[in-house]
Give the backbone structure.
Amino acid sequence: MKTIIANWKMNVGVRESVALARGTLLTLRGRKVSPALVICPPFVALSEVRKIVARSSAGLGAQNMFWEQSGAYTGETSPRMLQELGVSHVILGHSERRALFGETDEMVNKKVLQALEQKLVPIICIGESADQRREEQTQQVVRDQLMAALQGVRLKSSDTIMVAYEPLWAIGSGVAATVSDVIETHRFIHLLLGQVFEQAAPGQFSVLYGGSVDAENAYGFLREDEVNGVLVGGASVKINQFKGIVQAAAEVLEAKQTS
Ligand code: 13P
């Protein structure tokens, strides 16, 4: 399976989210095979988008959450609140949260543990900066972030974990990583996950690529076995772009069925 996750970031309000959710689901219509879809609107639109998504096969994701269940944490949202809203997935440790809101590896780890506790699928974002890439530290950075995020995680047979490899320099820049770089880093991440979760069944974790994915380049990533899906920012709020990405995934899945 291939999964496409739409991260709308803070780009759409409630009304726009409803319209975009309808348009996004239409991209699945009439297809023999479809990728799995997860829509991550802003918090304020979750309950309205849920009403639309509930009638489809798509999942509903949040873009962040806090790790406590309740209490005096002004402005925060708990895992239980997300579950109550019908949320199935949650993006954790996105580079924008790390860079702009001071999220640390330790905070991401607490969130991952609580997400799993609450039966939410964590989408753990990791990736190196341009400087780190230049200094050939990609694997080290990715390993450190991943190991920190997974500290103390005991994977139950019903748990699923997603890791999104999002190189910082590729996010919103229009310059995606090359397919060969993505394959290399994804292989490394799969290897690490296999070591950490020796007993895991195939399909319990998946590795997605994010960073300037669009209708043009999506096929190139999605056709690779190491790439279980894509996490899409900018192109997920442009319906024609998003349709092209869904189309690319469908073509890949169809080709795999016939081969
Ligand atoms: P862009 O697709 O806009 O580069 O954003 C990627 C991203 O941050 C998804 O989480």
